[in-house]
Design brief:
6-stranded parallel β-sheet; 17 helices; 440 residues; single chain; FAD/NAD(P)-binding domain; alpha/beta; binds flavin-adenine dinucleotide; 7-stranded mixed β-sheet; 2 domains
Length: 440
């Protein structure tokens, strides 16, 4: 079969870092390898994003006081500005597009839908004052429609042993003034400044040698609060063997120093080998929790913490996407090196689960692109429907905004920040975002 000479047509579902990196890497790899594979070296890529703005958790997960990481959006802008990549925001796979629609129109469909849903914490279901870290991160990152958690409590609890738990604790404890120079809208900053939270207790199920905190995150937490590793955990640190991994060892050393930190009006307690065993919510509203320390060899100790806010940061899971196989144990789209089924591929957190930083979505995308090119080299091009994407979406009465609209929104957000010398101030209202982006 002739391997074809027209540009390859590719759909990418999800404009997070994984989707944008996969588009960029695909174009670069094609330019390098097409000749060797005997295939067309041109491709036209349509990226579909369900939100009014792209970049997924770079925009709505990474904490506002991590500006260097937020700057990744500049690299994503650069990749997105390729004329071979088109962006369609407000278009949702499963609601506006089906797998059949996509397979008819494209040579390959790459799912990069992330794992943006908080893992369900059974204990907290339906209790006011209990929410997921994704909801809290969405709020302080100005995700449209997400309101503030209950901040009228002097003590908050966070359940989880990863960097997201520390992000949430730090934002809750931080002096609000440094945050006023970030991209956080005024209304959110005011909610944070009015917060009563003075103390955060973090419950980590595993022992101190097995946490997943980074040394930088611990240092940042120490700079805004007095970090206290509880007595029980300190005893465990004395009894446990020091971690062998250099990264965990560095963090462990930072923790050993923790309680010596300078006094601060804000406190953050770390409770290792401890879990929340029950919640006290007499009228469906959280008033406290029971935690359990597990010292091993059957020694368990319980204690009560009065609190009106408990945030679960126990991980994330991908949404089950219609038409695609799902690995419920790992919470990912089932795949082999990114291959899902005929012409369907996956990358990013939807492919490997909620592990790893933004940088790892690049190597991950490279593997998926390798699978696509190998398949194209083997099978060549088939027929695809060539109606333009705009016409197709309009025929379905789907309203969308495009790349020019996103760049207009970015300019608008920069202009909102300019009077106060900030790089940008985010727009929170979906209506306003769509107005500025010129939703068609
Ligand atoms: C709270 C938090 C803080 C983090 N902080 C850092 C940090 O400081 N540094 C770091 O390196 N990493 C950080 N990470 C990790 C980083 O965000 C991830 O590694 C990365 O975002 C994963 O990329 P992704 O593209 O797979 O998923 P996402 O970023 O989630 O992007 C997926 C995109 O797909 C879209 N989408 C989903 N479903 C559909 C659909 N049906 N149709 C159309 N579009 C859809 C989503 O709206 C989203 O835009 C953090 C993660 C979290 C949760």
């Amino acid at each position: 079969m002739a391997k074809g000479g027209r540009p390859w047509k590719v759909a990418v579902i999800g404009a997070g870092p994984a989707g944008i990196y996969a588009s960029d890497i695909l174009l670069k790899q094609l330019a390098q390898k097409a000749e060797e594979l005997g295939i067309s070296k041109e491709a036209e890529i349509d990226v579909f994003e369900k939100n009014p703005a792209p970049y997924g958790l770079v925009r709505y997960g990474v904490a506002p006081d991590h500006p260097a990481i937020k700057l990744i959006s500049r690299a994503l802008d650069k990749a997105l500005s390729s004329e071979k990549i088109s962006l369609f925001c407000n278009v949702c796979y499963g609601r506006d597009l089906s797998l059949t629609d996509l397979l008819r129109r494209y040579d390959a469909v790459i799912f990069a839908t992330g794992a943006g849903r908080d893992k369900k914490w059974e204990l907290g279901q339906g209790i006011e004052g209990v929410c997921g870290a994704g909801r809290v991160a969405g709020w302080y990152n100005a995700f449209p429609g997400i309101c503030a958690p209950s901040l009228a409590t002097p003590t908050a609890a966070v359940v989880g042993g990863g960097n997201t738990a520390l992000d949430v604790a730090r934002v809750l404890l931080q002096d609000p003034y440094p945050l006023s120079s970030t991209d956080m809208p005024q209304e959110i900053w005011r909610e944070l400044a009015a917060s009563s939270v003075k103390e955060v207790h973090i419950f980590v199920r595993r022992g101190p040698a097995f946490h997943k905190f980074s040394v930088q995150q611990i240092r940042q937490l120490k700079s805004c609060s007095r970090l206290i590793v509880d007595e029980f955990s300190r005893r465990l640190m004395g009894a446990e063997a020091a971690p062998s991994s250099p990264a965990v060892l560095a963090a462990w050393r930072e923790l050993q120093e923790a309680s010596n930190a300078a006094p601060s009006p804000k406190k953050c307690y770390l409770h290792f080998a401890s879990s929340v065993s029950s919640l006290f919510a007499p009228n469906g509203r959280l008033e406290g929790l029971w935690a359990q320390r597990n010292g091993g060899s059957g020694t368990e100790e319980k204690f009560f913490l009065e609190t009106g806010l408990c945030v679960s940061a126990i991980g994330w899971e991908a949404e089950r996407l219609p038409g695609l196989p799902f690995d419920s144990d790992r919470g990912i789209v089932s795949n082999q090196k990114g291959r899902v089924s005929e012409k369907a591929y996956v990358t990013g957190w939807a492919k490997r689960g909620c592990e790893g930083l933004i940088g790892s979505t690049k190597s991950d995308a490279a593997e998926t692109v390798e699978s696509i090119l190998a398949d194209w080299g083997q099978k060549g091009q088939g027929e695809v429907d060539s109606t333009s994407t705009e016409e197709f979406l309009q025929s379905r009465k789907i309203r969308f905004s495009k790349k020019a609209g996103w760049f207009a929104l970015e300019n608008y957000e920069s202009s909102l920040g300019r009077p106060d010398g900030k790089a940008r101030v985010k727009v929170k209202s979906a209506f306003e975002m769509n107005r500025v982006s010129g939703l068609e």
